[in-house]
Design goal:
By secondary structure, the chain is mainly beta. The protein has three helices and nine strands; from the N terminus they run H-E-H-E-E-E-E-H-E-E-E-E. Helix content is 12%, strand content 34%. Strand 8 and strand 9 form a beta hairpin. The radius of gyration is 16 Å and the shape is globular. 17% of the residues are buried.
Length: 158
């Protein structure tokens, strides 16, 4: 697979929930001590500049994230070896149907469906890992209609 083709050739999207402590607090959620994972379908990908399709009746929330593109097959990797498996990065927007997520959480059900709509994961162009000196210290921000919605740093991730 060409790294630049990860949107069409990638087999899965593994996302980390509540990875920014401030965001967890903002949503009145407990700040996790360990990250937890959820999956999104690859149909959620849409290229930068594409049109996000918001289903009727959905209240959307968005979070800017550093997308990590795994460069080779990996399992049971130690923390110290993890970066060896990274092929590169892409800016990613994790979209959530917040009202559907709240309903699912209230019933004790998985909330992957609230994050898995087609086009609910806009991504920017692929960047080889050599383009980013320190993935643990990158400022990420998101503006919608010229208004700042999120401003953080990967150093603040859990």
């Amino acid at each position: 697979m060409s790294y630049t083709a990860f949107r069409t050739a990638g087999r899965k999207i593994v996302a980390i929930g509540r990875n920014f402590a401030d965001h967890a607090k903002e949503l009145n959620n407990a700040v996790p001590t360990e990250p937890f994972f959820f999956l999104k379908p690859t149909t959620a990908y849409i290229d930068s500049g594409g049109i996000v399709e918001i289903p009727k009746g959905v209240i959307v929330h968005h979070e800017v994230e550093l997308g990590v593109v795994i460069g080779r097959e990996a399992r049971d990797i130690s923390r110290k070896d993890a970066l060896r498996y990274v092929g590169g990065y892409a800016l990613s927007i994790d979209m959530t149907a917040r009202n559907l997520q709240d309903q699912a959480k209230g019933k004790g059900l998985p909330w992957s469906a609230a994050k898995g709509f087609d086009t609910f994961n806009p991504v920017g162009p692929f960047m080889y890992k050599t383009a980013i000196a320190d993935p643990h210290n990158i400022r990420l921000w998101l503006k919608v209609n010229q208004q700042m919605k999120q401003d953080g740093n990967t150093a603040d991730m859990i």
